[in-house]
Amino acid sequence: MRIDSVEFFYASMPEVTLEADGSQDALLVRVVGDDGSVGWGECEASPLTSISAFVTPRSHGVCQPVSASVLGETVNDPKDIFGLSQLVGRNSMDLLQAAHTWSGVEIALWDLLGRKLEEPVWKLLGYKNNFAKVPYASMLMGDTPQSTLERARDARAKGFRAVKFGWGNYGTADVGDDADHVAAAREGLGKDADLLIDAGQIWGDNVALAVERIPALQKAGATWLEEPFFAHAFKAYADLAKVSGKVGLAGGEGAHTEHMAMNLIDFGAVKFIQVDSARIGGIGPSKVVAEHAVRNDVTFVNHTFTSHLALSASMQAFVGLEDHKICEFPLEPKSVAWDLSVEHIAMNSAGEIKAPDAPGLGIQVDEVALRPYLREVEIKIDGQLAYESPSIVAPTRVGH
Amino acid sequence: MRIDSVEFFYASMPEVTLEADGSQDALLVRVVGDDGSVGWGECEASPLTSISAFVTPRSHGVCQPVSASVLGETVNDPKDIFGLSQLVGRNSMDLLQAAHTWSGVEIALWDLLGRKLEEPVWKLLGYKNNFAKVPYASMLMGDTPQSTLERARDARAKGFRAVKFGWGNYGTADVGDDADHVAAAREGLGKDADLLIDAGQIWGDNVALAVERIPALQKAGATWLEEPFFAHAFKAYADLAKVSGKVGLAGGEGAHTEHMAMNLIDFGAVKFIQVDSARIGGIGPSKVVAEHAVRNDVTFVNHTFTSHLALSASMQAFVGLEDHKICEFPLEPKSVAWDLSVEHIAMNSAGEIKAPDAPGLGIQVDEVALRPYLREVEIKIDGQLAYESPSIVAPTRVGH
C-alpha cells in the first residue's frame, strides 16, 4: 500500500495554561493509503513546530523535511515501517524536531497496517498475549501534606493500586517539607499501593540535592523516584542509583531516539524506563527499548499524558510483557484529549486496564467531536502556500 | 540591558540541493537591547522549524516557545546568559527543536554583550589568550582513489596542514575500495599533514562494519575517525574505541545539550569532541563541554559548516586552549554563507587561523549583501498572524 497522504490536525483547549498538563493540546496525524485505508497517530508536543518539521524546505541532504521520507513510500509489512524509520533518521539527521513529527506518523502507519491486516498492533509486533496493566494515577503534590494525604486517599477510593505524586513544590522546598509530603502520601495510600514520586528534572545534575531526599523515600517505601535530573544527565542518574537502595530510579520520557532511552538503562542505571512512543520515534523504537529493558532486568513503562489514542500507542510496545505491570494512565485529561477519541481504555474493578484487541490501535478518532478544538495553521514562504490545515472531513475518493 | 527584540532572518541559495553541504541556507538571529545595542547569531539548521519553535503557541508549562524565556529579560553579565539557558531548558523542556532555536539567540546575546562591554566573547568566557588554530579542509571523497589523491594534493597546495575526507561512498563501498581511498588520501597529503576521515553515521550502531575499516585507517596514520555511528549510540562508540588504537574517535556535532556531548566523552570514549555552538545551545554550553574535555584529556574541536559568523561563534569556546589546535573551517561555502558577513576569518601563511579580537564575535553581518538571499516566512494561526519575517533594515529608534 502506497502512502498517499499525511495530514496533521492541531487541536487545543481554548486556553492553554502554564500548568504541567500535557493534555491541553494535541497534534493528530491521519495517513491514507492508496487503497483508501486510514490510520491515526499522535505527536507529543508543540504542534506548530512538528508541522513545520514535516513541511519545511530542506537545508541539505541530511536535513530534509520528514515528508521527503514518507510520501509515496510503500507499507505492507512491519519491516517496512522500521525501514521508513531508518530513512527518516538518515534524511532528517540534522532536523532535531523530526523525531517528534515522525513519532505521530509512525504510530499512524502501525494503525493503518493493523486495520489493513485486521490485527492489533501488538500482534504485528510479535506479541502473543495482551496482558493487563496496573495504571497509576498521576497527581500534583498538594499545597500541604494534609492535602497530599487526601489526594492519595481519593485515588485509592477510585480504585487505583498505584499513585504518582510530583511537581508542585517538590524538590525545591525544604527537605523536611518534602519528607512530610512523601510520608503523607504513603499514609493516604495505605500499605498496599505503589507510591511513585516524580521530581520533574528539578535537580538538574545536582546529585547532592537528590541524595538528601532518598531517606524519606526509602522510609515511605516508594517504588520509584522519577526524573531526578535532566534527560541527558546519565552520570548523575548513575551516581544517585548507587545510594538509592530499594527506591528505583525512573526516567526516559525525554528520549527521542531508541539509543537515548537505552543509554539511560546502560549508563544511567534506571530500574524503570519510561518511553513515550509519541516522542521516541513511534511504536517500533519503543519495542526495541522494551526488548533492551527485558535483557537488562529493567521494567518498561509507558509515558502518556494526553489522549487514549496516545495511550493505546504507548502500551503496544509492552503489552506482551507479563511482568512489566505498571502503566501510566492520563487520569484527568483536558476535554480535548478525552473527546478526540470514540473509545476509551477503562479501568476494571481489579484496578487494571488492557490495550484494545481490535485491529490497529483499536481507538477511533472522533472527527466530529474534534472539530470545535481544531486550530487552523497556514504557512507561507515567499508568498507561496507551504502548508494549510486540511479539512477533518475524510477525503472522498473518486471512482470508488 | 533589557532584550527588546529577537528577529530571525532566513537566508538561502535559490536552489537547495541534496548534497551534504550545510552552507546552503542559514537562519540568522538579531537581538536588540533597550539601549539600541545589537548582536547577531546563527542557528543550524532548518530555518522554518527553528522559527516555529520561537513563536509556537505553548503546549503547557514546560513546553513553551523559546520566546517566553527571552523577550523582556535582562542581560548585563555572562552569568545572565547562563541563567537564560537554564530558563529555556526548563520552560521548553518538551520542545525538542528549542535547543537549535536557542543556540542562535544565545550566540547573538554573547555578541550583544561583548559589543556592549567592548570585549571579545572569549574574554567574557574567562580566557586570557586567543591561540591560533590549525584549520582543516573538509572535502568529499573522490569518485575514484585517484581523484581523492588529487583533492588531497590540492588542499595541501592551498596551505592546509590537515584535511578531512568523508561521505560520498565511504563506508558503504567494499572494504578494499574504502582502504584504497584512505591510502590515496594519505599519498596525496604527504607524511606531515593530519588525515581525518568522516563516516557520517553510516554504520548506525553496527560496530563490526566499522572495525573492518580500522586497519586501513591505522596504516594511513589517520588522526581520527569521525561519526562512525548514530549520535546517541555511545555503546557502539565505546566498543569501537577499544580496538581503534591510535585512530581516535571523533563525534559530537549532533549534541543538542552539554550533557549529551559530555556523555560521548564519558561513555563513548571519543578522543575528539566536536561541538557546534549553533546546535548545542550556544557558546556557554560549548565552553562547559570544553572544560569537561580538558579534564578528560579529550581534544575539543568546533563543528562548523556554514558562515564565518558561525565559525567565530564555535571557536570562542576553545580559543584559550593552546593544546587544542585543530579546527573545522568551512572551505568552500555556498555564496549565501560567505556573503552574509562583512569580515571573514582568513588562513595565514603558516596554515593557521585566529578568532577575531574585536568586541563580541568580531564579525559584522552584511545586511545589504544578505537581502537577495532572504526568504519571507508568514505563519498564521486561526487567521491571526503569528509570525512574519522582519525587515532587515535596522530599526530606527524614536527619541534617540
General description of the model:
Chains A, B: One of its GO terms (molecular function) is lyase activity. Chains A, B: Keywords: Lyase. Chains A, B: InterPro entries: DgoD-like, Enolase-like_C_sf, Enolase-like_N, Enolase_C-like, Mandelate_racemase_C, Mandelate_racemase_N_dom. Chain A has 400 residues and is α/β, with parallel strands linked by helices. Chain A folds into two domains: 138 residues, Enolase-like, N-terminal domain (Enolase-like, domain 1); 216 residues, Enolase-like C-terminal domain (TIM Barrel, Alpha-Beta Barrel), CATH 3.20.20.120. Helices cover 34% and strands 18% of the residues of chain A. Chain A contains 14 helices and 14 strands. An eight-stranded parallel sheet of chain A has the order 10-9-8-7-6-5-4-11. In chain A, strands 3-2-1-12 form a four-stranded antiparallel sheet. In chain A, strands 13-14 form a two-stranded antiparallel sheet. In chain A, helix 5 links the parallel strand 4 and strand 5. In chain A, helix 2 packs antiparallel against helix 3, helix 5 packs parallel to helix 6 and helix 10 packs parallel to helix 11. The radius of gyration of chain A is 21 Å and the shape is globular. The two termini of chain A are 16 Å apart. The C terminus of chain A is likely disordered. Strand 13 of chain A pairs antiparallel with strand 13 of chain B.
